[in-house]
Design brief:
By secondary structure, the chain is α/β, with parallel strands linked by helices. It has 2 domains: 277 residues, Metallo-beta-lactamase, Chain A, CATH 3.60.15; 182 residues, Rossmann fold (3-Layer(aba) Sandwich). 32% of the residues lie in helices and 21% in strands. The strands form 4 sheets. Strands 6-5-4-3-2-1-22 form a 7-stranded mixed beta sheet. A hairpin with a 2-residue loop joins strand 9 and strand 10. The longest helix has 28 residues. It is globular. It binds zinc ion. The site of zinc ion has 4 residues, from loops. Zinc ion binds next to loops.
Length: 468
Amino acid sequence: MQITFFGAAQNITGSKHLIESEGFRLLLDCGLHQGKRHEADALNRILPFSASDISATILSHAHADHCGMLPVLVKNGYRHKIFATPATAAIARLIMLDSAKIQQQDYLRMQKHAAADEKILQPLYSAEDAEEAATHFAPLPYAHAAQNWQPLNPRCRFKFYDAGHILGSAVTVVQCDQPGGTTTVAYTGDLGNTNVPLLHEPEIIAEPVETLIIECTYGNKNHRPIAEIADRLKEIIRDAVHNKRKIIIPAFALGRTQELIYILHKLYDQGEIPALPIYLDSPLASDITAVFASHRDDFDQETWADFISRNESPFSFRNLRSLQTVEESRALAAAHGPYMVIASSGMAEGGRILNHLEYGVSDPNAIIMLTGYQAEHTLGRKLQDGITPVRVYNRMYDVHARVVTVDELSAHADQRGLLAYVSQMKDLQRVFLVHTELPQATAFKAVLQQHFPALNITIPAAGQNFEI
Ligand SMILES: [Zn+2]
């Protein structure tokens, strides 16, 4: 069996890993590269393999850096199924449609505003291409509900375990019978943090696994305990109400947004926070939240106890309003606090959050709250690193807002969580560290090797191929 890492290799976007066994080619994820616009586009423009040669595809979860290139895969001649959990299939369709829309908007904006020597980037795919890709989804529940292996061909099979990262996220276990015996490989996709609201903990894999492909976004770091987030939010919100501040939160439309709303709803019900108006300025997040409501079995016990058993939705309460139109978004951005606005994108690279940052970054009375991983070169990372001035749309702004990072809510396992996950694997021999920048991977490799001296650990580079 061979494995090639085509993306998320020494960086955290563009996940694409190819497993080959006796001519059978299984693609694990087909994600968009994100980051510097022209560099990312060059990587996304051409698939690093022949789409028509792929025999089957498995999607770990619906984040764009894992699913966002599926329309390109199908456009280039892929004709087979794309396996995913039912929630992932439903959300990935929305994410791909949104991605097509953003590409079209970027294209139109560049046509108008690009410098004379700047190359105008054509969209990678259209909404029709995204819909076409979605017709390939073959939804399959987690193994704890379905029990059986899903056959891929007469020699290979797979099953899904709950990864606890976002709704529908799965760890994939693939087993292939080979001339020398059976080989089992597990791919974590993105692995969840423990004790986060809404979701189950990452599930323990029952089968012995020889080779593990594991993400390690936070391989060098431990998160603050999630229990602290309520106190930090309370403090920030009380201060905002008292001083009439606005709190601007860039958040992924999928995952962080729903978790934040859950926590705010609970704090409000408990009388712990004052009645601050909260705006969800993301039509995509509203659509995804509706998908959440139809997958209640994927929620953890706490969510059932807090809300569902009382026949209440965690995602709607009196203070919360969803904005639909761009005009509403702009009007709110120009308004005075106190209020909180949650808008995507999570790393402030695009989307309606830019309307709010355009007004907010230079406002000393504003708070910018970063809630997730901020990749290198993104506006979110620059704000996190205290860089000033920063570019928002086409203008530079001095940063006077207070920038706070609330990483307790991370959707990713931290170093402790990753180590605990590897520790529960049986018969593990080989580990590949993916979905990580090199410093994080190097730190995690050292810790892992210290705990498991016999383990063969590799940090693959893009395009590298291994016999397993
Ligand atoms: Zn993810």
